[in-house]
Each structure stands twice: as structure tokens, then as C-alpha cells.
Amino acid sequence: MKEEHHQADEFVLHAWVDESMQMPSRQRAGLYLLAAAVASPAACDPMRADLCDLLLKGTRRLHWRDESGPRRAKIAATIATHDLVHVVVVGAPIDPKRQERARRQCLERLVFELDALAVSQVWLESRTQSLNERDRRMFAALHAKHAMPTDLHIDFALPTDEPMLWVADAVAGAVGQARRGAALDVRETLGHGIEEIDIPL
Questions:
Q1: What DSSP letter does each residue of 90-104 carry, written as one string?
Q2: Strand 14-22 to strand 121-125: parallel, antiparallel, or no bridges (unpaired)?
Q3: N or C: which end of the chain has fewer CB atoms below 10 A?
Q4: CA distances (Å), origin 51, targets 126, 178, 199
């Protein structure tokens, strides 16, 4: 990840973004969730250190879907102690064969919301080179139709390098669980700093 430089008297906000999906069942429509953890990058090192302290031996990242219930509760409680705002765009119903379409729709809305918060830099979890390039083309199209500000910068980071992506992963996972009626207490632990925005897919 690129090194972040900041003027002492300059306040900026960055957002770290990750996705989660809830596949459809007979009882419920599928969901595509895109979560952003928003914070001043100058204040994130304590958050990173606290999350790294939760790593199990031999692991390089926290990943919500791989964690047990008690560890998810501990991760949520750790995140809740820090000054963060979370924005989660929830798209439904998802067609499992059209996940990239769902991602594009949710990303477009998320970018709009992050711009409204005066976020200047967005870090997306890096996927494959071809999928990252697909995201870049989408952002270029948004710029071309003036649906995205030119001073909002988008880049990619690896979850093994950037613990702030673990926050977005956890929030997306917790909201998704709560939406299907599971682990509501974990969602509540994260507090009232989560804005959930529903969009039709």
C-alpha cells in the first residue's frame, strides 16, 4: 500500500471497503453488501495494532467468515472502541450469476455516500488484476458522466497488508448476519455508527 502523507493542520478522511454476500434461499432473498470503514488515516494506527493483537498464531489477517462466534464478538467489541463511521450499502435481491453487476450498483451508491462525507481516498480490497481493472473502468465511466468527483481517489490494498480492510470485512459480515436474523448482538456491539443503505438490484 502507498505510504500516506498528511499535513499536520490538514484533516482528511479515508475509507476502506470490503464486500460480503448472502446467497438466496427459499426463505430469503440474497444480499450483496459493500461496507466502508471511514476514519482519519492519521488516527488509524491504534486500530491496526488492536486488530493485529487479535490474530491467531500462523494467520496474517482477520476474516469474518473464518472466525468463531466468540471471536466475532471480540472483534466487534474491539472495533467499537475506536472512532469510526461505517457506511454499508445493501443490494437485494442478488442474482448469484450477476455478482459483478451487483457490485457495480453498490459501488456507485457507496461512492456517492462517501463523497457526501468528504472522503478523499478510497481503498478497495484488491481482488484479481482483471477484476481490479474492471473496477477501474467503472470509476472511469463514473468520472466521464460526472457521477463521481475527480478529487476522490480510488486505489487497491491487500488485506494481508492493511488491517483497516478487516474492519470493513467485519462490519459487512455482522450486518449480513443481522439481516438474516443471526448474531444481532454482534451488530449491536458495533454501535450506532453504522449507516445502512438499501438499494434494489
A1: EEES--GGGHHHHHH
A2: parallel
A3: N
A4: 19, 22, 31
Order the strands of the 153-157 sheet from edge to edge.
153-157, 121-125, 14-22, 31-39, 85-92, 194-200
- Give yes or no for a contact between 158 and 49, defined as CB atoms under 8 angstroms apart: no
- Cis geometry, peptide bond prior to residue 93 (ω within 30 degrees of 0): yes
How confident is the model over 109-129, as pLDDT tens digits?
999 999 999 999 999 999 999
Grid look-up 450486518 returns: 175
**22 is written with which cell numbers?**
448472502
Pair type for strands 31-39 and 153-157: unpaired
- Identify each DSSP E strand in the chain by its residue range: 14-22, 31-39, 85-92, 121-125, 153-157, 194-200
Sequence-separated (6 or more) residues with CB below 8 Å from residue 138: 104, 107, 108
| Predicted local distance difference test score (pLDDT) of residue 81 | 96
Q: Is the pLDDT of residue 8 over 50?
A: no
CA distance 159 to 166: 7
Torsions phi, psi of 195, nearest 5? -100, 120
Three-class SS state of 196:
strand
CB 12 within 8 Å of CB 34: no
Cβ-proximal residues to 33 (8 Å cutoff; 6+ apart), any chain: 19, 20, 21, 22, 88, 89, 90, 91, 106, 172, 175, 176
